[in-house]
Predict the 3D structure of the following.
Amino acid sequence: TIRAIENLNSNNVPVSIATVLHKQNCDDIDSIISLVNDLNITAFRIQLLIPKARGKESKDDLLLDKDEIK
Protein backbone atom coordinates (compact mmCIF):
# COMPACT_ATOMS: atom_id res chain seq x y z
CA THR A 1 0.00 0.00 0.00
CA ILE A 2 2.79 2.44 0.84
CA ARG A 3 4.53 1.61 -2.43
CA ALA A 4 1.27 2.27 -4.29
CA ILE A 5 0.92 5.66 -2.56
CA GLU A 6 4.51 6.53 -3.47
CA ASN A 7 3.82 5.56 -7.10
CA LEU A 8 0.71 7.74 -7.16
CA ASN A 9 2.64 10.65 -5.63
CA SER A 10 5.42 10.31 -8.20
CA ASN A 11 2.76 10.63 -10.92
CA ASN A 12 1.14 13.65 -9.24
CA VAL A 13 -2.05 11.75 -8.39
CA PRO A 14 -3.71 13.10 -5.23
CA VAL A 15 -4.17 10.50 -2.49
CA SER A 16 -6.72 10.61 0.32
CA ILE A 17 -6.98 8.23 3.26
CA ALA A 18 -9.72 7.50 5.78
CA THR A 19 -8.97 5.73 9.05
CA VAL A 20 -11.50 4.24 11.44
CA LEU A 21 -10.38 5.00 14.99
CA HIS A 22 -11.06 2.21 17.49
CA LYS A 23 -9.64 0.67 20.66
CA GLN A 24 -7.00 -1.34 18.83
CA ASN A 25 -5.44 1.62 16.99
CA CYS A 26 -6.19 4.72 19.08
CA ASP A 27 -2.76 4.62 20.72
CA ASP A 28 -1.17 4.67 17.25
CA ILE A 29 -2.92 7.80 15.96
CA ASP A 30 0.19 10.00 16.31
CA SER A 31 2.22 7.50 14.27
CA ILE A 32 -0.56 7.28 11.68
CA ILE A 33 -0.65 11.07 11.34
CA SER A 34 3.14 11.16 11.03
CA LEU A 35 3.02 8.55 8.25
CA VAL A 36 0.29 10.53 6.47
CA ASN A 37 2.51 13.62 6.58
CA ASP A 38 5.58 11.69 5.43
CA LEU A 39 3.66 10.28 2.46
CA ASN A 40 2.35 13.71 1.40
CA ILE A 41 -1.27 12.57 1.58
CA THR A 42 -3.61 15.18 0.08
CA ALA A 43 -6.58 14.52 2.40
CA PHE A 44 -6.85 12.55 5.64
CA ARG A 45 -10.05 11.78 7.52
CA ILE A 46 -10.46 10.10 10.91
CA GLN A 47 -13.77 8.41 11.56
CA LEU A 48 -15.11 6.81 14.71
CA LEU A 49 -16.42 3.28 14.51
CA ILE A 50 -20.10 3.11 13.65
CA PRO A 51 -21.56 -0.02 15.24
CA LYS A 52 -23.33 -1.36 12.14
CA ALA A 53 -22.78 -4.51 10.10
CA ARG A 54 -19.44 -6.07 11.16
CA GLY A 55 -18.77 -3.15 13.50
CA LYS A 56 -21.89 -4.08 15.44
CA GLU A 57 -20.57 -7.60 16.01
CA SER A 58 -17.30 -6.26 17.46
CA LYS A 59 -18.50 -3.05 19.13
CA ASP A 60 -17.60 -4.16 22.67
CA ASP A 61 -14.01 -4.88 21.59
CA LEU A 62 -13.57 -1.87 19.31
CA LEU A 63 -15.88 1.02 20.19
CA LEU A 64 -14.08 3.79 22.07
CA ASP A 65 -15.45 5.06 25.38
CA LYS A 66 -15.96 8.80 25.80
CA ASP A 67 -12.83 8.87 28.02
CA GLU A 68 -10.70 7.33 25.27
CA ILE A 69 -11.54 9.98 22.68
CA LYS A 70 -8.92 12.73 22.87
Remarks:
- The mean pLDDT is 88.
- The first helix runs from residue 2 to 10.
- The first strand starts at residue 16 and ends at 21.
- The helical segments are 2-10, 29-38, 54-57, 59-62.
